[in-house]
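Section 5.1 Outputs to date
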Amino acid sequence: MIGNTIVALNDSHIVIPLLQNIVDETAFKIILSTIDSAKTVFQLCNENRIPISSAYKKMRKLQSDGIVSVEKIEIDDNGRKVLFYKSNIKTLDFNLRKDGILLQFNK
């Protein structure tokens, strides 16, 4: 991605579920592990000691929320597709004020 894109969300109906997904322990580990380099689910599981089923389930949710995306696809020696995931979030700021919530992240 060229340049930085700052996204600000202030609708609590969007921000609260998104925050809940991000601060989940498994999701948090996945996001941190993929900020700098794309990784497969198996790499993420080995590095972070995450069960494979939990990793796939969380990865689908993070993808649907636009938090991670597939950076590249390779074909392994057995002819299977191997997906490499990367975080779309580089930084995240959360502000809670009397007038509402603001979630701002740098993509």
